[in-house]
Amino acid sequence: MAKRDYYEILGIGKNSSQDEIKKAFRNLAKKHHPDVNQGNKEAEEKFKEINEAFQVLSNPQKRTQYDQFGHSAFRPEDFAGFRWPNFDDLFKDFGFNDILNNMFSEFGGRKARTRDGNDLRYDVEISLEDAFNGLTKKIEFPGFVVCNSCDGTGSESGHLDDCKNCDGTGEVRRIHRTGFVQIANIATCNKCGGSGKVATKHCNDCDGNGKIKKTRKIEVKIPKGIDNGQYLRITGEGEVGYNGGYKGDLYVVVNIKDHQIFERNESNLFCKTTIDLATAILGGEIEVPTINGKAKLKIPQGTQSHTIFSLKGQGMHYINSNKKGDQLVKVIVDIPKKISKKQEQLLGEFLSGKKVETSKGFFEKLKEYI
Fold first, then answer.
1. What is the rounded CA–CA span in Å between residue 7 and residue 24?
2. Is residue 331 within a helix (H) or strand (E), and if so which, with residue range?
3. In a domain, 282, yes or no
4. Domain count, the chain
């Protein structure tokens, strides 16, 4: 599925200021943040989309790249570090953080810290024909998953207790007094890592980590028309999160093998074919290969060597579309190295009085075509 425009996602115009971008992000984040939509996968995906748009548009350099080249300006690894902030972090710039901390304390303590799983990258190599037709490919990749023996707790059954250092809240609160002012400093508990729980006996299968490394197998649908270096994001197929955090994503990067006949430029294909001198002079019809079969190409009389012909609609699919680009065929006239006396005489008569001119080369004509 094609990515939506980042400006459209945030509901802003392309001339919006940084303050307007931040304001739009906060308003949408408060509505769709996973912390206020527990278990709602649709809200999680919506927020990922919002966060990705904000990470690009809030960075002046990335925003300039996006305005010039769109989504193609970025690689999968450019998004690998994108993580959404905790819900209360969205309010820090407004000075509401301490108020929220006190509110959470009054209602039974804060939620223990979570951490989302890492994103993974998998490179897959396919042929040009596969890119033309699209395919479903089975892939295997290693990654961390929840330990089934302890359900991710890292503890043997019956050996998981509340952390005494933070009373099970996952955070340690320290109060400092300066005159009549009381300042609360809240930090993640270093004993339980923010989970609020401590294993008194570690799980034997995962050594207390709560996750184990495992090779997984999934099917990936690669759309027709995909280009070299483009990628697919498989949501939730990355590594498992910590303490209930969301899973990371899997980025499948497509690499297309070089083809023996065709070269590709976006949705257009290029190839070369050779014709004999008689066909070049008299004209005719030849057969040329296409990405999915063969096609007839009409050669007009007097065709010059290195002439480029276009076969409309014989190129690659536009991604996820039945529309196709063109196939450009460069015709090279094969000049015989040896001819008979009779042929020499006939050619001499035919070419007498002809001026020799230097014709445009392949790349010059290609520039004109593009």
1. 10
2. strand 327-334
3. yes
4. 2
Contact predicate 289/129, CB 8 Å: no
Q: Which helix (H) or strand (E) element contains residue 120?
A: strand 120-126
State the Cα–Cα distance between residues 193 and 205, nearest whole angstrom.
20
Distance CA 335, CA 221 (A): 48
For residue 364, give the H/E element and its range: helix 362-369
Other beta carbons within 10 Å of 336: 10
In a domain, 56, yes or no: yes
Q: Which helix (H) or strand (E) holds 219?
A: strand 211-222
- Whether the CB-CB separation of 194 and 113 falls below 8 Å is answered with yes
Domain that holds residue 16: 1-90
The pTM (predicted TM-score) of the whole model is 0.56
Contact in structure between 184 and 175 (CB atoms under 8 Å): yes
Whether 340 is covered by a domain: the verdict is yes
How big is the chain by its Cα radius of gyration, in Å?
32
Taking phi first (over 0 means left), then psi (-120 to 50 degrees means alpha), and beta for anything else, what does residue 95 get? left
d(CA 75, CA 71): 9
**CA 322 from centre of chain:** 22
**Average predicted confidence (pLDDT) for the chain:** 77
Decide the pairing of beta strands 211-222 and 135-146: antiparallel
- Residue 352, domain CATH: 2.60.260.20
Strand partners, 288: 295
Could you tell me how many residues make up the chain? Answer: 370
At 76-106, the pLDDT tens digits run 555 544 444 444 444 444 334 443 444 444 4
Q: Tell how strand 327-334 and strand 307-311 pair up.
A: antiparallel
Residue 197 lies in a domain: no
Max mean pLDDT range (78-82, 230-234, 290-294): 290-294
Cα separation of the two ends of the chain: 28
Task: With residue 187 as reference, give the H or E element that holds it.
Answer: strand 181-188
Q: What is the rounded distance in angstroms from the CA atom of residue 69 to the CA atom of residue 67? A: 6
Tokens of 55: 């990470």
Q: How many CA atoms lie within 13 A of 353 on its CB side?
A: 2
- Average pLDDT over every residue of 166-182: 72
